From TrEMBL:
InterPro entries: Beta-lactam/transpept-like (IPR012338), Peptidase_S11 (IPR018044), Peptidase_S11_N (IPR001967). The lineage of its organism: Bacteria, Bacillati, Bacillota, Clostridia, Lachnospirales. One of its GO terms (molecular function) is serine-type D-Ala-D-Ala carboxypeptidase activity. GO terms for biological process: cell wall organization; peptidoglycan biosynthetic process; proteolysis; regulation of cell shape. The chain crosses the membrane at residues 21-40. This is D-alanyl-D-alanine carboxypeptidase DacB. The keyword Protease applies. Substrate binds at K266. Keywords: Carboxypeptidase, Cell shape, Cell wall biogenesis/degradation, Hydrolase, Membrane, Peptidoglycan synthesis, Protease, Signal, Transmembrane, Transmembrane helix. The keyword Membrane applies.
């Protein structure tokens, strides 16, 4: 009888030990799962994406009008084409990518109504700044100002957003520079929201690619930059609203390229910056960013857009070559 009790006690201890081990295993799995989830949100996802090898490892960038160019794979952020990518450039209106994403992230309500004041227009006419078409005293929804800054490159829209979000233009520019540092734009310094020339307002094509890749994660930003046109709501000065058009799509009659199409972009131009373009395309089910700067020409010239078509077509053909068994590099 005593032997049976000892045996039962021993079995009970073994069962309890197994239960304890199972509990520890379950706890370890739960902790590991939480670590992976939290870590993914804090950047491990990007790190794992960066390990993914691009289909094309390297693409030749010469033979275009722009002396500065970077081609980046959106997923992972790998640079697969680079021509003076880290040299200083003037970003001109590519600056407005930062203006728009900072405004989106700091506005509580995109339907908020903002009244443009006379002071917001001071200096714009004298500097021949591009405008979307709003007037002093006009009350406009924030979302229409965002489209106005991105598509027709409206300087008055940038200033209205800056004053509303940052309390002043200087306050907003401080937010822009903080964001630039936070996302790794180490060769960039902003002085204003519009990109009008200032010797101390500079960037690199690599930094602008980093910026666009960051901004494309925001659904509102992506919807705006992919739009060829936008019609505003009714305002107190425009009872029918205003319709404006993307400065990139105006020079791009057909967005198709080999293996895909150009999805969106932001142009820029000053005499000091030359023709600039930050664009992105989907080619064979992967997205790529191309940033070019410094092409000769004036504000109406399409050479920067032609460069984008050239590089994306070259990339598509290189991917096709990879699919058929070449080494994956463009020759």
């Amino acid at each position: 009888m005593r032997s049976k009790k000892r045996k039962a006690k021993k079995i009970k201890k073994q069962v309890n030990k197994i239960k304890m081990i199972l509990c520890l295993v379950v706890e370890a799995i739960v902790i590991l799962t939480l670590v992976v989830i939290i870590g993914w949100n804090k950047g491990i996802g990007d790190w794992m994406e960066s390990l993914q090898r691009p289909v094309v490892r390297k693409l030749e960038m010469s033979g275009i009008n722009s002396p500065y160019a970077v081609l980046m794979q959106v997923k992972g952020g790998k640079i697969i084409g680079n021509m003076k990518g880290d040299e200083k450039i003037y970003p001109a209106s590519m600056t407005k990518i930062m203006t728009v994403i900072v405004a989106i992230e700091n506005l509580d309500d995109l339907d908020q109504e903002i009244t443009l004041t006379q002071e917001m227009f001071q200096g714009l006419y004298e500097q021949d700044a591009t405008q979307a078409g709003f007037q002093p005293g006009e009350t406009v929804r924030a979302i229409d100002l965002l489209y106005g800054a991105m598509l027709p490159s409206g300087a008055e829209c940038c200033i209205a957003l800056a004053d509303t979000v940052g309390g002043s233009r200087d306050g907003f520019v401080e937010l822009m520079n903080k964001k630039a540092q936070r996302i790794g734009m180490n060769g960039t310094h902003f002085c204003d929201t519009t990109g009008l020339h200032d010797p101390d307002h500079y960037s690199t094509v690599r930094d602008i690619a980093v910026l666009l890749r960051y901004a494309l994660r925001n659904d509102t930003f992506r919807k705006i930059i992919e739009s060829p046109r936008h019609s505003t709501g009714v305002t107190n000065l425009h009872p029918s609203g205003i319709t404006y058009y993307s400065t990139m799509f105006k020079n791009l009659s057909d967005p198709s390229v080999t293996g895909g199409k150009i999805l969106g972009g932001k142009t820029g131009y000053t005499s000091e910056a030359g023709l600039c373009l930050a664009s992105f395309a989907e080619i064979y089910d992967r997205e790529y960013i191309l940033v070019t700067a410094g092409a000769s020409g004036n504000t109406g010239s399409p050479l920067h857009v032609k460069d984008a078509v050239t590089i994306y077509n070259r990339l598509g053909k290189a991917i096709e070559a990879q699919m058929t068994g070449s080494d994956g590099s463009e020759s």
